[in-house]
Amino acid sequence: MSVTANGAPVTGIEDMALDATRGQAVLSAYDRRAGTTGGLYLLNLQSLDSPAVAATPLASGLRPAGIDLRAEPDGARSLLAISRRVDGSATVERYRLDGATLTHQGTTASPLLCRANDVAFLDGERFLFTSSHGGCGWGAVIEDNLLGGRHGFVGLVENNNARVLIGGIGFANGLFPDPKHDRLTVAATRENVLLVYRLSDPQAPPRRIAVPGGPDNLTMAPDGRLLVALHPSPFQLALHRYGWPGGAAAPTRVAALGPAGTEILLDEDGRRFSAATVALSWNGRLIVGSVTAPGLLICDEGASGATGSSAPAAPPATR
Q1: Quick one: which of 48, 96, 221, 253 could link to 230 by a disulfide (CB 3.0–4.6 Å)?
Q2: Residue 233 falls within a domain, yes or no?
Q3: Angle at 27 between CA 79 and CA 268, to 5 degrees
Q4: SS3 state at 190
């Protein structure tokens, strides 16, 4: 499905946060391969029946990565977004979303954020983030990507100060805190596992859940199942991500994980829609975003009621 904003196509919708109660989603997108900036957009999910939809720009001129949405007691929404800079640094920007108006409320800056991938509220003030590598320079990338190091980590921001909470992760990516069940799930992309920690004791050894590919962003359904976008071939993803020879496409895979096991919801070679990084559902449809592809992939058969927000959200209405 084509997505435009101010008449221009939106490419590289890497992450999404669903506001099921309002029937909308916030999109985080920028075209990495073109080297252009992108932004944050608001999508009316009632428009998914159309072959092309127009999203409302919320913030432009950004290179955003992971986002999270939180419903506040006064009915407004708080939004966190990782913002990457050309110089290799990154910040976490906090916004208030009232209707289609986004108001900037503050910036968190720290050297620990330079490789930040995803972000998630713990409560109204504290939030977690993941870092794919343990350092900012290319040496850290080579050590992990080529030499097999595991220096990714989960960080905690409290009183606007960042610190490492959990270390030793092979490319820490998506994360989903679940305080109700004292659980924090982290995607370890290069380990092909989900790491499940206790929020009350994050230093305790995690439970490891093997998944069929490198996990990226995570969303959760009301029945407790996790939706996870997977990268079946890191090598093919790298060729595709950087536009190298042989990288015309990268496989797309989406799975749902629950007590009964793992269910593959989508498995494609990438020629229709490459390199999925996030999936959520709305009214029985699976909505898939990609780090490189234009627009979104909409499938009629998906898990029902998933949400990209850390805070509980009402399930969507039945079609």
Answers
A1: 253
A2: yes
A3: 135
A4: helix
State the DSSP code for 308.
S
Pairing verdict, β 2-5 and 52-54: parallel
Give Dmax (Cα) for the chain: 52
pLDDT of amino acid 125 = 92
What tens digit of pLDDT does each residue of 30-56 get? 998 888 889 999 999 998 888 889 999
Residue 310: per-residue pLDDT = 56
- Note whether residue 87 is domain-resident: yes
Return the number of other C-beta atoms located less than 10 Å from residue 216's C-beta: 30
By three-state DSSP, how is residue 111 classified?
helix
- Domain holding 106, by residue range, is 2-299
| 40 located within any domain | yes
Task: Retrieve residue 255's tokens.
Answer: 């799975």
188 close to 206: Cβ distance less than 8 angstroms: no
| 209 DSSP 8-state letter | E
Secondary structure class of 112 (helix, strand, coil):
helix
pLDDT digits (tens, 9 = 90+) for 264-277: 999 999 999 999 99
The CATH number for 222's domain is 2.120.10.30
- Residues in the chain predicted with pLDDT less than 50, given as ranges, are 302-305, 311-319
Write the DSSP assignment of 122-166 as a string of letters.
SSSS-EEEEESSSSSSHHHHHHHHTT----EEEEEEETTEEEEEE
Secondary element (H or E) of residue 239: helix 234-241
- 309 is a domain residue: no
The count of structural domains within the chain is 1
